Here is the input.
Amino acid sequence: MSGLLGVKMNISIKSSQSEVVTKSPVPTKATSEVQAGSITETGGAVNSQRENVSISGAAQALYAQSSAAERQSSMSKSQLKSLHANTWDNLYSFSQSIANKSYSKEAMLPNTDDPARLEMAQKSLDYAVSLHQSPPGRASNPFAGMERNDLSAVVYDDSGTFTMAERYAASAELRMQDEARFSALAAKLKPGGDNREVFKGILEYFDDLPPVEKSAYPDGYRDSIDDRLQEQIKQWGPLAGLIEESEDKSSNFSEIIVKKDKTSMEILNSIFDKAKELSKAPD
Here is the structure.
């Protein structure tokens, strides 16, 4: 967990989003790029470097207030599964309310007089709104660049520490980081049997997931990945003997596997399935 920044905030959310059972939201046009001279609510240019430092500090301070990691470690698998499902149901409900403009701006902001806290929440809301504009707006994501599992702690913290807009913005950045990692992994898939590097990458990704995200996968999922990796090592040799192929010798499957309408788990499963298919010994 990130170190404390010596900031203690008394935070409460004015209202919460209603829960609906539906599919997980997938931000399809999110961008984590910070545009120089970002536009404020009044249309004026701001110093993006100073803005990023301020917002990054607020984001880290908020995360320090969250006890998500500790809480997850003491939860049962059924509780973790419920937290996972409810989180994405609520995020989808929030996304729909933004898309339909059926929300109160006041209800989306924290009940606090802390200017940094309010700025963080406002920028998260601006970012969420910009994703649902046509064409998409250029608001920057205040969570851009935060460590993946710190983002996860924000996304799955249902204690009221974070607004739904902040959790949504964090989920968009988490998704973008996963997509970048999956694209790099899918690009290493190659016909011919030897996909040790891909199975290793899948296993490393899964092992690094926090408990709530692991709970969404079926029992024995890790063992199935490790079994494939061990089969590959037995057939092709130890991982230390891996030789990276140049790009022109590998088939890039990232464009057909990493899809915007899929969840991270679905993309990872697709890479796993493709690696198994390509690892079959040729006739």
